[in-house]
Amino acid sequence: MTARDVAIEVADLGVRFRRNRRGKRTLKDLFAGAKRRTRPDEFWALRGVSFTVRTGEAIGVVGRNGQGKSTLLKLVAGVMLPDEGSVKVHGGVAPLIEITGGFVGDLTVRENVRLTAGLHGMSRAEVTRRYDGIIDFAELGDFQDTPYKHLSNGMKVRLAFAVVSQLEEPVLLVDEVLAVGDRAFREKCYRRIDELLSEGRTLFFVSHNERDLRRFCTRGLYLDKHRLTLDAPIGEVLDRYNADTDGRVGS
């Protein structure tokens, strides 16, 4: 496998967080206005995680809440740094994670499209060329001059997905974004992801929805106890996860 064939390389990855436990306050503390005492308590959100993703693969990441799935996505996106090991992404990423972040409430839809697309690396000419397509996809043609803060939550998600899905980066990172929005818009998102996969993009997909995972992904990563427990075809990973949790994934 040559370097050109590799999209993501993760080696011995580890990240830890600090959880503060507040000490008890006495009645004397309350009257004195004393601050609560804190004791740092570190824990590993991920530890010893290693895998390689080939260019054009569609990878689904599964696991119970709190096992490090979204943390792993943020590490791959480069918005978080590891405490151990390394993450290498060959090419840029289009991050569909916390997708409504970065939009400015007092700016209009039109202004936010130009701002956020530019922050994601689109040139001014690219934004101009793709603007109408973004607005049409988001179904916000009548709201282009409306302040972002006046949009409904569903409209905000449609706008964010429309912007990010127009990026030409080779790696697409998706974190539960398809759980939001009405059925018709979800189907539109599905078709857009199918288009991106047909173009040879690499998909790194975190979800609790078994149907979506089976639809898009061929390979799965199962995180349990903050470690990579299984790296196998998506069907095998989902069967193992379902057996471990004695239930079904998602809804």
How would you portray this structure in words?
The chain has 251 residues and is α/β, with parallel strands linked by helices. Helices cover 35% and strands 29% of the residues. It has 8 helices and 9 strands. The chain has helices spanning 27-32, 69-77, 109-119, 124-138, 153-164, 183-198, 210-216, 234-245; strands spanning 6-22, 38-54, 58-62, 84-89, 93-96, 171-175, 202-206, 219-224, 227-233. Strands 5-6-7-3-8-9 form a 6-stranded mixed sheet. Strands 2-1-4 form a 3-stranded antiparallel sheet. A hairpin with a 2-residue loop joins strand 8 (219-224) and strand 9. Helix 3 (109-119) crosses helix 4 (124-138) and helix 4 (124-138) crosses helix 5. The longest helix is centred in the C-terminal third of the chain and has 16 residues, at 183-198. It is globular and about 50 Å long. The two termini are 37 Å apart. The relative contact order is 0.17. The mean pLDDT is 86.
Question: How do the strands and helices of this protein lay out in sequence?
Answer:
Blueprint: E1 6-22, H1 27-32, E2 38-54, E3 58-62, H2 69-77, E4 84-89, E5 93-96, H3 109-119, H4 124-138, H5 153-164, E6 171-175, H6 183-198, E7 202-206, H7 210-216, E8 219-224, E9 227-233, H8 234-245
Parallel strand pairs: 3-7, 3-8, 5-6, 6-7
Antiparallel strand pairs: 1-2, 1-4, 8-9
Helix pairs in contact: 3-4, 4-5
